[in-house]
Specification:
Order of helices and strands: EHEEHEHH
Radius of gyration: 16 Å
CATH architecture: 2-Layer Sandwich
Structural class: alpha+beta
CATH topology: Alpha-Beta Plaits
Low-confidence stretches: none
Strand content: 5-15%
Number of domains: 1
Mean pLDDT: 94
CATH superfamily: Transposase IS200-like
Shape: globular
Length: about 170
Amino acid sequence: MSNYRRVYIPGGAYFFTVVTHNRRPIFTTDNRVDILRDALRKVKVSHPFDIDAIVVLPEHLHCIWRLPSGDIDFSSRWREIKKAASRQIDPTTNRRNERMVWQRRFWEHAIRNEEDWRKHVDYIHYNPVKHGLAKRPGDWRWSSFKTAVLKGWYDPSWGDAEPANINGMDCE
């Protein structure tokens, strides 16, 4: 068992990496991504949080959440999101009554400041290009990049080359 310790900051912002079981490419169709989106929406109703940025790739996703003031419980939210999506993606279970859709854990990073936030937002939006799934961030449909452009965070042509601030960054 690892000695990994999660950092809990009331009302904090967090970057997450969540991976499918054995990196199986599950999110390859609109239907599968819609199942995940529905699970996120459902959990947000009962346990609110804001999503600053998100990208869904075939075998993993990255996102940044902001929790409500005083709230530290991102783990329960992920548990409920994974359960809701898994029920619809693969109804079969193993002998431990687990659906083999997600890795058991997820990785989180507490966002420290504005520069750290920007670096992780850029990492999220450039990720489909990094993995060879798109030529530019705007070409990948399962990403918040187009929304970020509308908010003025990016020029639509951003990401034609790897941004210097994420060079060598690996949050896979």
